Predict the structure of Dihydrodipicolinate synthase family protein.
Amino acid sequence: MSSVRFESRRAALADVVAIPVTPFAADGSVDTGAHRALLRRLLDGGITTLTPNGNTGEFYALTPEERRQVTESTVDEAGGRAAVLVGVGHDLPTAVASARHARDLGAGMVMVHQPVHPYVSAAGWVDYHRAIAESVPELGVVPYLRDAQLPGARLAELADHCPNVIGVKYAVPDTVRFAAFARDAGLDRFVWVAGLAEPYAPSYFSAGATGFTSGLVNVAPAVSLNMIEALRSGDYPAAMKVWEQIRRFEELRAAHGSANNVTVVKEALASLGLCRRDVRPPSRTLPEDERAEVAAIATGWPI
């Protein structure tokens, strides 16, 4: 398939790539009604790229059936209003089945989670992603890269085999490494998405990223859109004003090795009356004394 066919999907990655939460009902099941309402809120807020089954969506805490359910709801709500980038992963047959399910529903792209296998070789990383990409040649494929050891040349090798590998969600917290990796892989060959969200977006954009992922966007879509507008226009002082605005919220999410990454987002949504605060183990809800700070931040942002 020619790269021209992927043009709109590449454009969708060069944007705020929202990672919606997966709200849970009182009985612990996925709250489909609340999930759909949150998706509509994102769409109405101007968000045009959605990633069901991302880490902020508690991908690793969902059952296979729940992951399918989340994908189906997202594709249905997105309609023609947004591109859908479906998170896939786990063992290879599961990842391939998830990618094909996404394709059959009409999603345009899949994001391949960084393999959590304890023994990942660089060549094996290529094999894993190649098998997924080749199973859905019609879809754009976006590796989610958290491995600082992987050389950029391996990504180029993957794309030589699979022209549908069109972008990278780069989530290694090292701007210098990102700049080198992107140039070793091919800066213009892929859409580079800053995979560590708004806190890293300005520095990663300065090195070649053109999109960023966001969990904060669940709470305040306007804040994330303000940042990408500033970055697109090269107005780094304006982008850093947004950075200052979201700094404390993101520090709370990043604390204790990102233990509360999802917890803080759901707490903010709960404070606004948009969903329950419940998260699944190994995440945990915030202690009572920290909830007020999150609520105060959330109420201070424009929606």
